[in-house]
Amino acid sequence: MGRWEPGASGRLREAALALYLERGFEQTMVADIAERAGVTARTFFRYFGDKREVLFDGSSELEERSLAALEAAPATASALDAVSAALDAAAETIGDNRDLARARQRVITANASLRERELIKLTSMSAAVAGGLRQRGIGDAEASLAAETGIAVFRVAFERWVNAAEDRDFGDVIHETLTQLRTLTAAS
Amino acid sequence: MGRWEPGASGRLREAALALYLERGFEQTMVADIAERAGVTARTFFRYFGDKREVLFDGSSELEERSLAALEAAPATASALDAVSAALDAAAETIGDNRDLARARQRVITANASLRERELIKLTSMSAAVAGGLRQRGIGDAEASLAAETGIAVFRVAFERWVNAAEDRDFGDVIHETLTQLRTLTAAS
């Protein structure tokens, strides 16, 4: 009880998502999640601050990896190429586990306060990417626009990827969406 | 008392914005707004459901006008041109009163729950624009991407316009941002 439990964090995450889908997020208690995962509530709190954090604790890793890729892009890369590198890193971070991403998305879509949290997360990501672009010497105006455009591509690609019947990689869907953006803006 | 008050809605809006800036949104009561505007609280509630609605009651007009412009765009217009027509209509709707837009933005930026409300409004706008594009016969994937891109342009242009020292029209800033988007996506 309360000791280190190998694999507990993964089991807790799976149990939480299953219960959020079965009963709804609001109706699920931390004690239910712990019971389903075969651990104590105390063990739950060793890994997650609350039941919402199970859904959002990947955000900081996503942001860190994306920003690292943005920073590592060649100095000659255009603003959108740098953003594209960040999107690739995001796809690698999320893309390992499509079932998890799908379950998470269904839970979030079903709950207004979780949808708000997700929107805030994306807005904060946009601000961070704009900051990273400014550090690359890109002007304020272009940096904000490239970041917002990148978030738009991410949102659309993510929705396609979690909803698609087929099994393409998230990275492939991101590239397709970026190509479509170039076509869209070149068309007129 | 409670009768029709000519100009009361405009006075209430100005009084509310002034108080939100002076005292903060949370600290302002409907009674304070009514008193500042020289009307009763009952008159306030003839125009606005609550103190938050003073800030967001323009949203439905904005959405209606933007969607009407989208629908009225020539059948030959590309997805992004149709979105651009919607953005022009949005600029016309908002652009009349820059001081009001600025004050409103400062109030919203200062309050987390208002920022969330604004994000939700933009997301709903994006969904509505995507729906309008699908009605023009544009495929799902392209419609979502064009709508999200349009919202990205709107956000960036709006921020520039309310923050800029100069006095360009909101429509001009939108056009400049759209041109910048084309340059950005063509650059690589």
Automatic annotation (TrEMBL), chains A, B:
PROSITE patterns attached to this UniProt entry: HTH_TETR_2
Annotation: DNA-binding region: 29-48
Superkingdom, taxonomy of origin: Bacteria
Keywords: DNA-binding, Transcription, Transcription regulation
Keyword Transcription in annotation: yes
Domain HTH tetR-type: 6-66
Coiled-coil segments on the chain, per record: none
Name listed for the protein in its UniProt record: TetR family transcriptional regulator
Organism (species): Streptantibioticus ferralitis
